[in-house]
Amino acid sequence: MDGMIRTLLIANRGEIACRVARTARAMGIRTVAVFSEADAETPHVRACDEAWPIGPAAAAESYLKADVILDVARRSGADAVHPGYGFLSENAGFARACEAAGVIFVGPPASAIDAMGSKAGAKTLMEKAGVPLVPGYHGDDQAPAILSQAALAIGFPVLLKASAGGGGKGMRVVRSEDELPAAIDSAKREGKASFGDDRLIVEKYLERPRHVEVQVFADRHGNTVHLFERDCSAQRRHQKILEEAPAPGLDPAIRDAMGRAAVAAAEAVGYVGAGTVEFILDASGTFHFMEMNTRLQVEHPVTELITGLDLVALQLRVAAGEKLPFTQDDLRITGHAVEVRLYAEDPARDFFPQTGPLTRLRFPQGEGIRIDSGVEEGGAVTVHYDPMIAKVIAYGRDRREALARLGSALGRIEIVGVTTNAGFLKRLVEHPEVVAGPIDTGFVGREIATLAPAGEAAPAAALAIAGFAEMLAFDAAAKSAAARTDDPTSPWARADGWRLNDVGHHDLDFREGERVTMVRMAAERSGEGRGWTARFDGTDHHLSGHFDADGSLNVRVDGVRHRAVVVADRDRRVVFLDGRSWPLVLEDPFTAGEVEEVGHGRLIAPMPAKVIRVDVAVGDRVARGATLLVTEAMKMEHTVTAPADGVVIRLAVAVGDLVDEGAELVVLEAVDE
After folding, report:
1. How does strand 627-633 pair with strand 352-353?
2. Domain 7-106: which CATH class?
3. In sequence order, which ranges of 378-459 are alpha helices (DSSP H)?
4. How far lies 145's CA from each of 181, 185, 228, 521, 626, in Å?
């Protein structure tokens, strides 16, 4: 570097802020963090040399306040700002404000952000440049009637997309004319809430395509290269779940053509820095331009691993005025990398985002495994921001090795406090069709019943081990209590179930959802050491073992040795066994049955949210599946529908209300036809 960047302000939070800080500090650059009131004690604050408060938890009042962030840049002496991804990273106004303030914006020029920031404008530009497009409408007239007319002309199915959007927000697949009005209204509203822009584009929806994107890099000296492609076809509701590089099974000629098209797209707008050109690839091998993301992508680590490059370091060097240190001919693909996004969400509840404390957070280590995270044990996932816990990335000599390492790593993650999608991700990377590759963007939706099975019960070994762990903990507590008595050796001083002329036992009720299993733990006093029998569902299971120094259980169940971890969090128990986790609730027999049952007609909020639409009033008669109201959380809309035909007898909320998880929303009285 030529010394232009001495102090870097990172205008972001979480994982990406930690990632940028790590590289900047390695380069000898002083780092400045900004944080909202909700983030005062988070890892990205400690990752930097200094940190400045910028406002309340709401992003609109903190991380999206360009003037406040630039004021911190001035006061902290920062000569450059890295925007990360999301928030202000693709805001041309912010890039211009940085330039006006004499601060380097680590990203492309504002003109390039403007050109590519609107999906509609970008498609017009690409059309002029001869880049193939999906048939669609991206005009200025945004009247619903015009959008509907365009959809009819294109032919169903069509895809509605927020012009300023990304990440699946403001996006709807419409398969018939009847669905259009509600879909247009919902997509516009979500686009406005997420990006401050309700403009839409309408495109032909391609069935079973692949989503392949190309990483580009350009400097200020006229040099532009591509760093090969990433396959992001594993998606749910248009949001990426798994990304890998290189794209499996891609014809070298197509790879070359896509790379050249991506470079041409970047050069057409005078691009500088890191960017990603996204394409849809159909079954015939024809690719169509989708959009260009004018920032560093969430999935950039897979490109780093197959090229050996640090993309953040390249961003900083290019922003400082340096030339790219390589040409296209210097670049090679080595090995294969796969990344998944670990979220606090519940696959069994339609992937509802989860919030709560991270009571336990343990990530695996090992050859070829990389974890990028911005949270820590003892922290929390809050309602204010995206619920991503970490990116789990695996690298291998080939795709099969990378997938195997990733599956193993996912099975060794230990998280207690919030429900996660770790099990879903493990099933995904180990699915035979994923291993065989490639897949299309509809694969996850078609296989959702396999990937996120409902009502999966804990295996017998997990229940037996949960009971065994309780007994070991009980024994330890009993011995500790006995040691404080006048006669520690007396059996009367023990509280371990010892009985005169009898084998003590303990009855434990473990609940999974609605199912409660009574596990009777009986001590076995014969043979070497002390073992236990766990009896439930009419079967005895014999257990012996001990806690190791790291807190894990070294246990034999019916003669088979296992390594398990059982974590207690108040009444919750989570059993980590054989690469899976099984959440249980240990019920207190003195309070069981005190919880009021929620009837089928009483609908409650599944998570903290804001009510943005109410479609019914008291006295309305509704049919099963009818929309009752719509809530918004984490910038995603959630529709509450009628579970059965009925009449609204109570409405507990109004538009604009903020509700907590479990809050009553509406009560229906069932009607018989």
Report:
1. unpaired
2. alpha beta
3. 399-411, 422-429, 432-436, 443-446, 448-451
4. 9, 12, 41, 68, 24
Backbone angles phi, psi at 552, to 5 degrees: -80, 160
**Alpha-carbon dihedral angle through residues 472, 477, 483, 486, given to the nearest 10 degrees:** -120
pLDDT for residue 341 is more than 50: yes
Q: How far, in Å, CA of 15 to CA of 392, rounded?
A: 12
Instruction: Inform me whether the pLDDT recorded for 113 exceeds 60.
Output: yes
Residues ≥6 apart with Cβ < 8 Å to 315: 82, 106, 107, 273, 274, 296
Which long-range contacts does 403-410 make (Cβ < 8 Å, 24+ apart)? 403/338, 403/429, 403/430, 403/434, 403/435, 405/366, 405/367, 405/368, 405/369, 406/338, 406/340, 407/579, 408/364, 408/366, 408/579, 409/364, 409/366, 409/369, 410/340, 410/579
Query: Beta strands 621-622 and 646-651: pairing type?
Result: antiparallel
- Residue 571 has a pLDDT of 86
> Rounded to whole angstroms, how far apart are CA atoms 229 and 227?
7
CA angle 50/54/56 to nearest 5° reads: 130
Summarize pLDDT for 138-147 with one digit per residue, the tens.
889 999 999 9
Q: Is 427 helix (H, G, I), strand (E, B) or coil?
A: helix
To the question of domain 135-204 being in CATH 1.10.12.10, the answer is no
Amino acid at the residue 438: P
Locate 57 and state its tokens: 């938890």
Catalytic residue, candidates 295, 341, 399, 427? 295
On whether the CB atoms of residues 123 and 132 are closer than 8 A, the answer is no
Q: Look at the domain 210-451 and name its fold.
A: D-amino Acid Aminotransferase; Chain A, domain 1 (3.30.470)
Q: Out of 3.30.700, 3.40.1440, 3.40.50, 1.20.120, select the CATH number for domain 460-586.
A: 3.30.700
**CATH 3.90.79.10 given to domain 602-670:** no
pLDDT in tens, 210-219: 999 999 999 9
Rounded-to-integer distance, Cα 510 and Cα 121, Å: 57
Does the pLDDT value for residue 526 go beyond 70?
no
Which one, of 288, 267, 95, lies nearest residue 210 by Cα? 288
362's CB contacts (< 8 A; 6+ apart) are 377, 413, 414, 415
Q: Where are the domains of the chain?
A: 7-106, 135-204, 210-451, 460-586, 602-670
pTM: 0.81
The per-residue DSSP string of 465-514 comes to HHHHHHHHHHHHHHHHHHTTSS-TT-GGG--S--BTTB--EEEEEEEETT
Active-site residue, 19 included: no
DSSP state at residue 622: E
d(CA 333, CA 214): 13
Decide which of 673 and 530 is more confident: 530
Q: Name the nearest CA neighbour of 169 among 608, 633, 609, 635.
A: 635
Whole-number Å distance between alpha carbons of 606 and 611 = 12
